[in-house]
Amino acid sequence: MPLLEFTSKGIYCKQADVYLDPWRGVNKALISHGHSDHARWGSKHYITQEINVPILQHRLGNIIVSGKKYKETFIINGVQFSFHPAGHVPGSSQIRAEYKGEVWVFTGDYKTQTDGISTMFEPVNCHTFITESTFGLPVFQWEDPQKVHQSINEWWAQNHDEKTTSLLMGYSLGKVQRLLKHLDPSISKIFTHGATEHMTQVLRQFIKFPKTELITRDTTKKEIEGNLVLAPPAVLGSTWIKKLGVLSTGYASGWMAFRGARRRRAVDRAFVLSDHADWKGLLSAITATGCENVITTHGYTELFAQYLNEKGWNARTQKTQYESETEEILVSE
Fold first, then answer.
1. In this structure, are residues 292 and 286 in contact, taking their beta carbons and an 8 Å threshold?
2. In a 10 Å sphere around its CB, with 0-12 CB exposed, 13-18 middle and 19+ buried, how is residue 268 labelled?
3. Which domain holds residue 245?
4. Looking at residue 205, which CATH number applies to its domain?
5. Where is 252: in which H helix or E strand?
6. Whole-angstrom distance, CA of residue 43 vs CA of residue 20
């Protein structure tokens, strides 16, 4: 019996009777981070990294949740667990499990680039590594993120000079805060959609961000004109967007590396900025663990596992209910 197995409810550790990022309600769940495909409502007790506690409470409501520091060990029925930095979003963690000398690591989602808001990814030695492979193709190789942030500020400044509102879109947990952290507040005011503002407020206790102003029903087009607005991608095509006036739209995502994705989004500017590891990041992370076995989950699993096998790892794929990058539903104002 392997230390961790894949079941209809999620990744299960039978010895400890706990699940890692289960997709159904269970008695006890260890959670890698707060995105909705990894942190789902319905479990009786959640255990996660301490920064992720208020994120889970904000997203899941009245739950029983306990927090652990990075690298703090805790034992459940003889199995030693710990959370280690994943670099994906604030509070994101790899989950390490050890029993009788056998070590498994489940990554959740991760990236190896620094982003200014998340604790940077740290490789963890293990025998078996369960890794995402969202961008597990050689075509995905990220440029220096500082250059991307510079391009965003230049785009915003030009729009401001032309009295055009800049609508910059990204996921409300992680991506928006990463964008906000690197925006130049001297250019103009920064307005926010409710979904992004509420999550940013949760994270202000841990991270220093520029000032933002929430767009409400009373906010006028004149107030917003020429400034920057941060919002989730679901606002495109909604009635909410009408109050922003004359717009230039920008979208930050790793998928913007594909021209087809840019066309489907119908945005004016595409900024290639991902909270997942690129091809080189995935390979460097796997190599650094010293692992023998690799299990690829969501993403380009088959092709990535095939490549790893050719390079000497014992790799296989595993279907899960995790998604590469989920679409966010539009949250009301």
1. no
2. middle
3. 145-271
4. 3.40.50.10890
5. strand 247-252
6. 11
pLDDT of 326 above 60? no
- Token readout for 84 is 């280690």
Question: What is the rounded average pLDDT of the residues 34-62?
Answer: 97
Q: What's the pLDDT tens digit per position in 130-151?
A: 999 999 999 999 999 999 999 9
Chain-centre distance of CA 176, in angstroms? 10
How far CA 150 is from CA of 13, 115, 143, 271, in Å, comes to 45, 14, 12, 11
| Contact assessment for residue 29 and residue 46, using Cβ atoms and an 8 Å cutoff | yes
Of 21-35, 87-101, 176-190, 255-269, the least confident: 255-269
Which pair of structure tokens corresponds to residue 281?
A: 């990041």
Same domain, 99 and 21: yes
CA distance to 82, 137, 262, per residue, from 255 (Å): 31, 12, 8
Would you tell me how many other CB atoms lie within 10 Å of the CB of residue 78? 10
Q: What is the pLDDT of residue 115?
A: 97
- Supply φ then ψ for residue 174, to 5 degrees: 105, -65
Distance CA 170, CA 273 (A): 10
pLDDT of 258 above 90: no
**What six digits make up the tokens of 235?**
């606002």
Phi-psi region of 230 (alpha: psi -120 to 50; beta: other; left: phi over 0): beta
Please say whether the beta carbons of 34 and 49 come within 8 A: no
| Residues 74-90, mean pLDDT to the nearest whole number | 98
Pair (249, 300) in one structural domain:
no
How is 18-45 classified by DSSP, letter by letter?
Answer: EEES-SS--SEEEES-SSTTTS-TT-SE
CA separation for the pair 105, 123 (Å, rounded): 10
Considering the domain architecture, whether residues 246 and 156 belong to the same structural domain is answered as yes
The number of folded domains in the chain is 2
Q: Is 0.90 topped by the overall pTM?
A: yes
Alpha-carbon 20 to chain mean position: 17
Largest CA distance in the chain: 65
Enter the tokens of residue 155.
């785009």
